[in-house]
Amino acid sequence: MSQNSWAQAVDVQETTALSVQLDSSKKVQGLYGGRYTRGDVNANIVLEKKENGGRTKDGDSVDPAEQSLLYKLIRRSLVRNRNQVEVLQRDPTSPLYSVKTFEELRLKPELLKGVYNMGFNRPSRIQENALPMMLAQPPQNLIAQAQSGTGKTAAFSLAMLSHVDPANKWTQCLCIAPTYELALQIGHVIEQMGTFYPDVQLAYAIRGNRMERGIKLQQQIVIGTPGTVLDWCTKFKHIDPKKITMFVLDEADVMIATQGHRDQSFRIHRQLPKDCQMLLFSATFEDSVWKFAEKVVPDPNIIKLNREEETLDTIKQFYVVCKQEEDKFIALCNLYGCLTIAQAMIFCHTRRMAAWLAANLTQEGHQVALLSGEMTVEQRAAVIERFRDGKEKVLVTTNVCSRGIDVEQVSLVVNFDLPVDINGNAHNETYLHRIGRTGRFGRKGFAVNMVDSEHSMDIIHQIEMHFNRKIIEIDTSNLEEMEKLFS
Ligand SMILES: Nc1ncnc2c1ncn2[C@@H]1O[C@H](COP(=O)(O)OP(=O)(O)O)[C@@H](O)[C@H]1O
Ligand SMILES: [Mg+2]
């Protein structure tokens, strides 16, 4: 599923959300180091009616740029993906090159050293094909799509460094990214990779960086956000767009989801020479991204790497019937109490519900981490990191960020609130994302769904039908039965 439809689903879910009235005088130990205010444990739960189509002070909305930055911050290595790379060549008769080693690329020794210094031993799946294409002479345009963490940014960083002529003291490569933070992240990769290639210099065209009008940059590579890059090309004339020979557009899906960025990108693009090499990268590829890509990248080679399918095959699925909201908490405690579980993730509809639940679980003596939308991306990354390191055993979260977490190590997923769509029907994709795994690990997992109304029972049936998998009822007060089922 695309990140966009994911975001919509999340927005909508939270339109009729439960919220908890917080007593801000009480403080609960912060879960990412500092102390911050959390809810009163015995807070009143009130049903709050939402206006204005979904975005509320409680609702966690997913911002694609933030999500992307989060992935970057928590990523330690390449994502596993064993799918075949699909390649569509502009000229199908020309030979298709792919490389298994960085040596085969005949890089400058300074760059090869930089690559190895980053701990890269061999090209990633997508790099095997993308690198020879980007380095080929004469230059070829490329559109590449693969999920976050597959090595796209590292690939074009290497291509840019390899492309420029360090003897020429003007900007030759231009790269745009959707946000300030993402531009900085890309810049760091280029800087790291170029450690042993000091003749090549990098400039950041981001807000806050100012120079006198008319001063030409000497840096061969410029990375920035569309607005500032456009200003530097037109208004301030720091860059001569006619001298750009490689143009890179990263995170195209996030770019066009950001107000104004699509048009600014076009305006930059229009000033570039016709024979400038155009490269575009995206994690997802729905129609809108395609339309954009086709306009920006003429006669492209196209590379696609599909995300590995998640499956429910290795998951045992259960549901617990609870009379009302409060019983769900008791069921959860029973459940957790009788299991020897490595780690658990608990999903709630709203950040207030998540905060309330986290506070209550903490009160019960559990080590709980809370992840929700009001945290900065950096704070969220820190929480995820702590959870991954096993510093907390339970993670309570709304839908926000849940995809950034490698659930392979999580043996229990609890849907404290079931995932529903705009019409209150089961949101099957979200369900799969929460509990599904890529299946190759063979590690068993358990999913427990809290059912608190006829409507939510109905949702369980919809999910069963959709995936053609039985979801079994359990009685969390029956310890013996529980032990049998979870063994
Ligand atoms: N060939 C490689 N070998 C090992 N690690 C790599 C390789 N290429 C990239 N990485 C690492 O994998 C992670 C994801 O790479 P990145 O280029 O940011 O992917 P993407 O742009 O597709 O999200 C980063 O931590 C990066 O340092
Ligand atoms: Mg990237």
Automatic annotation (TrEMBL):
It comes from Solea senegalensis. It is an enzyme of class 3 (hydrolase). It comes from the Eukaryota. The keyword Cell membrane does not apply. PROSITE patterns: HELICASE_ATP_BIND_1, HELICASE_CTER, Q_MOTIF. It is found in: Cytoplasm; Nucleus. A motif (Q motif) lies at residues 100-128. Residues 133-303 form the Helicase ATP-binding domain. Residues 100-128 form the DEAD-box RNA helicase Q domain. Residues 314-483 form the Helicase C-terminal domain. It catalyses: ATP + H2O = ADP + phosphate + H(+). The keyword Transferase does not apply. This is RNA helicase. Pfam families: DEAD, Helicase_C.
